[in-house]
Amino acid sequence: MKRAPGEQIDNVERVESAASMQEELAGMRKLHALQVSLAAQSDMRLALQDITALACTFARTECGCVQLVDEHSNDMELRVYRGHDERSPFVQQFLKDGFQATCDTVRRERRQLVIEDIETFTPLKCTPDYEAALCSGIRAAQFTPLFNRAGVLLGLLSTQFTMPYRPAGHELRLLELLAWTAADYVERNRAQAALRTSESRLAALSLVSSEVHYRMSSDWGEMRTLTGKGFLADTVNPNRAWLMDYIPDDDRAMVRQKIDAGIHAKTPIIFEHRVRRADGSLAWIATKGVPALGADGNITEWFGTAADITARKQAEQRLRDSEARLALVLDQIPIGVGLFDTQGRFTYKNPQLSEQLTDRIPSRDSVHGEEWKGVDQQGNPVPPQQFPGARALRGEDTTAPVDFRHLDGTTGRWLRVTAVALRDGSKVTGGLTVVQDVTGQRQVQAELGVLAERNRDILESISDAFYGVDAQWRFTYINRKAEALWARSRAQLLGKVIWDEFADLIGSATHTAHLQAAQTRQMVRLDVASPVLGHWVDISLYPTGDGGMSVYFRDISDKKRAQEQLRASEERFRTALTIETVGATYFDMDGRLTDANDAFLKMSGYSRADVEAGALTWQNLTPATSRGLTAQAFQELKANGSTTPYEREYLRKDGSLRWALFAAKRLPDGTGFEFVLDITDRKLAEAALREVQDRNAFLLKLSDALRPLSDPAAIQGNAACVLGEHLHAGRAYYVEVDRKAQQYVVERDWHQPGETSHARRFALSDWPMPLLTDAQTWVVRDTAIDAALPDDQRAAYLGNAIGALIVVPLIKSGQLVASFVVNQRTARDWTAAEIRLAEETAERTWASLERARAQGALIESEERYRVILENALDYAIFTTDTSGYIQTWPPGAEAVFGWSAEEAVGQHIAMTFVAEDRLAGVPQREIEQAHHTGFAPNVRWHQCKDGRRVFIEGATRPLRDGGVEPLGYLKIGQDVTRRREWEDRQQVLLAELQHRTRNLMGVVRVVFNRTQRSSKTIAELALIYNDRLDALARVQGLLSRLNDGDRILFDELIHVELSAMGAIDAQGQGEQVVLDGPSGVRLRSSTVQTFALALHELATNANKYGALAQPGGQLQVRWRLLRTGNGTRLRIEWSETGVTMPTPGEAPQGSGYGRELIERALPYQLQAETTYELGPDGVRCTIELPVSESMRLDGDEG
Asked: Signal sequence: where (predicted)?
């Protein structure tokens, strides 16, 4: 039988549509398999290769590629290509500029781009992309953009064809779904990579840091972790007794108070307190805790560090002890000492000063200040504004004393006052004053005039002869004793030259002594036989201020005889002084050594001949720095007959200096005897100790200056300032080596006022430092002559006004990374201690810079980590402790599950699992698997706060810090509910298609058989059969219309379905069918397909086995609209009667699929309420489901 052309075309389209549907379903299965494999794939390149291969399969081509947008430059980069020669122009153009013209078109239009023929595609004409494609044999292509859920373009998925071509519609849809899957994978892979990087950096910083790290709960009630670094005991598991374990009893109230204040203010907690070390001893730490705030601004937990400050606290205690000892000493000294502030008020006075002055210095004493009159050392009045205290408060550096006379009318007391300013940097903070009572001295000065007259009387009354001469050796005074010895009157001698009057003296020892005293202007004393008098005399010559000389002499003939008698006794005594450990000397009162034992000679390096020559005196054994102390000791010896033991340096014959303890005694004959004990070794040890103490004080100051800094430039500047000021150098700075730029870099320096700054960049060639590569400190003490400085560099350093320098190289991993430089204009003999301080400063500066840069990198990493967590809202990323209790709950977790951080933190992860998984112990098994294998997949349905279920694809991994046991667990999961529901729906549709196809073939067979039985001729058979097939086709057409915006009417659906079965005619009439209900009931588009399938199953079963299959059967379908609290609903009652049913125990006819669809699928998918019952004479079924909101019941207004 010949068919019409239109019918043939319809058949072809139906065949093609069915083939397309089959291909699309096959593609869906491949896509689902790829999604499953991508969930476990961490290598992005392998994943992109699998994606490209599937894209080529969907597009029916061998050529394809994937481009990704670079995260930093926003440029397209070719990541994977397939089916192309690497040397082809097409690939090279991709590698060169990412096929820019095509990419720009897709970026602009933000949709799938299909180029059916590149030669006719106008936007590519005259572009490098156009030429490269044609040269490589590419004639057509499609580009599908990869957008993430936020609409950001991540890349392009493209396929190419060697002939003009346009992929089919279902192929393009599959490519779009593949692009969506690829975008999800790329975004997830990048987020996981960023998270791993951040975690590794955080772990690395924690390992290299020397500080203690800890983590506390939001109320500090629980210490979650503590890494003690061997200083404190580690805490791995949460500890709620940490306050008892770590904090001494006396400090707990203070620590709790600080913590409560920080919690209340939600600000960092910074304070110092004592802790109990791991070994049980007590130590001091400086702790800083920083709160982590949730999205609602509340504290979720605390992170903190603690540094050991025990050494600093001990140093502070030693300083307080030292100040107390100083105060004790000051309280004992016989002069007044005090400290005053900028208002002139005394902040400290020793007891002596308390007796001398009131509560303020005289220039600031408004009550008693007028009682003091000041004069300088020349007796000139001093106004109050020039008083020492007033000048000190103005910052004037002067130590000139002022004598004050107290004018209280009762006493004539005089006080000598000096004052110096106390500064903090350049700011005057007060002053120090020293007050000495000089009332007696003033009285002595007043009596000097009287004493001058008395001295004349004394000279006349003394037993020694005396005369005075002027600078021309003329007699100016002669006392009576001299007149008697010379037998000449003063009238004969005054005004005459001594050498003229006593010519016998010329050339004698007396004459030589006079010349020596006149030349050296020092006292000379000698015992000599006088050629004038003819016997021994003791002569003392004292040069006077006017160039003249005062001379005392007396007869010592008796003394000389006594000395001869004593010599034998002294020889015996000298034998007793052969002790080798203590030196002993004899000397006269002029300081000339007359004898010494071997121990002293060994100590001083002199020989006995030197002593016997008479030229060895305490004056030439004493360095200039100790002469004042020696003179004081001589005065004490002359006044008291002995000296208090004292220490000073002495000069050896070779010019070297040694330290000794001296104690002298005046013997009855007027000579001195002294013990000398060498204490050089002890002094060296004390000096070494002072150097260590000074070094420690400097390093403490340096540490305090660098510890709070995080800016590298500030660290360099402060370190240079502390060292430069301590050494009183001209400049100090830290130099970093920029290998990439081939430059030395000085970010910030320190220099004295007037000196030029060296803070800039230097080319390596402009500042040659070849001597630094061996890691030895380079020391130049005089750039003009020091051999340590190469001659070819000498002019450069002198030209930069550098007279001396220290350069400390910092060699790390075999390379010069930096150096520390100290220099000044003048030459300087750098001490070993100064060089060591420079080396210590260099190393500590480098360490501080490394610490600051590591902390900066950590902060940057944590910020990136925070941004990732805050923006990955479709990823639930959170951490738990080792027992599964939630510790962190970022915004993504809250967005996926619905619980806030306050609600989730502290809860067990089981709350996110569905009830059946909780009962099966899935949460605990997942943790155990992650603990033992390092990875536990988590791909299942989960429970939300509002009761919803979400499908999560993710995993659980342990968090470790290098130990065997984990610190907790990290859970990462993506919400793929929509995809999962789509996949489930896809499976239902596939099953429905298969089942409907079988049913359709059965219906066709039944319709044909029934039609054949009722038809009398072949022509009638063909006519009626074709009509019923058309009705069946119409039903299938209704079932295929999903979500297209149309509204299917229930009465139309039931009419079409029953018409297809041949149960009713075109007017809806049938011998075995009764239809009763309102017309125009609009069904929801989302419910039509499943609902129609249910009606189809009911009708098919009725047609095969039920009321429509048996001659006496009747089918009634009644429907009506109901108003409920949940909206308008449609109730359908399907009732079959007159049906012969299977006997009890006999299997029911049919597959049972229709009943399963009605009782399970409709309630689940359509929120329908259904009943299905096999009655004694047929099926009874009710279906109640929601309908379109546009439906109104009769009587509704509007």
From this structure: none
Q: What percentage of the chain's residues is helix, strand, coil (to nearest 5)?
A: 45, 25, 30
Q: Which amino acid is at 532?
A: V
Task: Report pLDDT digits (tens) over 826-873.
Answer: 999 999 889 999 999 988 998 888 888 888 777 777 777 677 666 767
Q: How far apart are CA 352 and CA 355, in angstroms?
A: 5
Rg value, the chain, Cα: 56
Higher pLDDT, 1012 or 671: 671
Ranking 256-260, 367-371, 682-686 by mean pLDDT, the lowest is 367-371
- In 461-548 the beta strands, taken as DSSP E runs, fall at 465-469, 475-478, 524-529, 536-543
User: First and final CA of the chain: distance in angstroms?
Assistant: 56
**CATH class given for the domain over 210-315:** alpha beta
Conformation bin of residue 600: beta by default, left when phi > 0, alpha when psi is -120 to 50: alpha
Asked if domains 210-315 and 710-851 share a fold, the reply is yes
| Mean pLDDT of the 338-357 span | 84
Distance, CA of 121 to CA of 772 (rounded, Å)? 66
Maximum mean pLDDT: which of 192-201, 915-924, 981-990: 915-924
What pLDDT sits at residue 872? Answer: 65
In angstroms, rounded to a whole number, what is the distance separating the alpha carbons of residues 307 and 711?
19
Write 692-695 long-range contacts (CB < 8 A, 24+): 694/833, 695/833, 695/836, 695/837, 695/840
CATH 3.30.450.20 corresponds to the domain 466-555: yes
Q: Tell the CATH superfamily of the 18-199 domain.
A: GAF domain (3.30.450.40)
3-state DSSP assignment of residue 824: strand
Using alpha carbons, list the distances in angstroms from residue 537 to 291, 529, 558, 560, 605: 95, 6, 10, 9, 33
Which three-class secondary structure string do you get for 977-1035?
Answer: HHHHHHHHHHHHHHHHHHHHHHHHHHHHHHHHHHHHHHCCCHHHHHHHHHHHHHHHHHH
The ranges assigned to domains in the chain are: 18-199, 210-315, 337-441, 466-555, 582-685, 710-851, 873-980, 1043-1186
Tell me if 889 sits within 8 A of 288, measured CB to CB: no
Task: Please tell me whether residue 402 adopts helix, strand or coil conformation.
Answer: strand
CATH number of 873-980: 3.30.450.20
Would you state the pLDDT for residue 2? Answer: 47
Residue positions counted in the chain: 1198
Using a cut of 0.70, tell me whether the model's pTM lies above it.
no
Q: In this predicted model, which residue has the larger pLDDT, 992 or 402? A: 402
Which parts of 521-653 fold into alpha helices (H)? 557-576, 598-604, 608-612, 618-621, 627-640
Tens of pLDDT, residue by residue over 158-191, are 999 999 999 988 888 889 889 988 988 998 888 7
Do residues 1053 and 1095 touch, judged by C-beta distance below 8 A?
A: yes
CATH superfamily for 710-851 is GAF domain (3.30.450.40)
Who has greater pLDDT, 10 or 218? 218
CATH superfamily of 337-441: PAS domain (3.30.450.20)
Q: What is the CATH number of domain 582-685?
A: 3.30.450.20
Name the region of 1193 (left: φ>0; alpha: ψ -120 to 50; beta: rest): beta
pLDDT at 256 over 90: yes
**In whole angstroms, what is the distance from residue 927 CA to residue 913 CA?**
13
Instruction: Judge contact between 823 and 806, C-beta under 8 A.
Output: yes
CA distance 701 to 720: 12
Task: Confirm if 1188 and 1084 have CB atoms less than 8 A apart.
Answer: yes
- b or e along 899-936 (b: 16 or more beta carbons within 10 Å of the residue's beta carbon)? bbbeebbeebbbbbbeeebbeeeebeebbeebeeeeeb
Residues 155, 94: contact at Cβ < 8 Å? no
Phi-psi region of 114 (alpha: psi -120 to 50; beta: other; left: phi over 0): beta
| Per-residue pLDDT tens over the stretch 590-626 | 889 988 888 888 888 998 888 888 888 888 889 988 8
